[in-house]
Amino acid sequence: MGGTRALPLSSLLAAAAAKSPLPLLRRHHHHRLAASMSSSSSPSSPAPPAPASASSAIDFLTLCYRLKTTKRAGWVRRGVQGPESVADHMYRMGVMALVAADLPGVNRDRCVKMAIVHDIAEAIVGDITPSDGVPKEEKSRREKEALDHMCSLLGGGSRAEEIRELWMEYEQNATLEAKVVKDFDKVEMILQALEYEKEQGLDLEEFFQSTAGKFQTDVGKAWAAEVASRRK
Hints:
By secondary structure, this protein is mainly α. It has helices at residues 9-19, 27-38, 54-69, 73-77, 86-99, 108-115, 122-125, 136-154, 157-172, 176-200, 205-211, 218-229. It is built from 12 helices and no strands.
């Protein structure tokens, strides 16, 4: 993820499909996505959303496979051996939301769902980090465009809409659930940094510094403090 040049979504989709060892993103679905991209500015009304078919679900899940093979770019850049994937990161965030104590006004189930959705667009755009030099607005635009096409691949309907809503809620950081999950995102990163420091003898201070003072919730602050205490 070293470059900053914006690539067309069709190219990113083709690259994602090419890197998958499974031929389940069938050609007609790729053409369907390409057609939807070319007609996205059309004034005609979209067709009513339909429930995801088995074919659409498996195509969507096959694209999500890229989350298991895309390594977190920050660790790659720092030379970590065997770095975690995006899916690894989201999974432990989901567990964090599951095991956290009940918080007043916070829907725990929604936090679990948000944790496993928040980076889902990286199946197409990859893990864009601050060191890539991509402006925040451009990063968000690329990811939202990717998310829209993933939801289209899923066939629309209530499940696709739920994924879109969860992703947007996280991006906007406007609810208690989003703030909790944002904190879990940072806690998971520094916990992983601590583990890599202990396992591989690295100094990953920059990851701790990047999160300092940025936790928004009591649970986030408490867990971050506990992680920091274990570095000593």
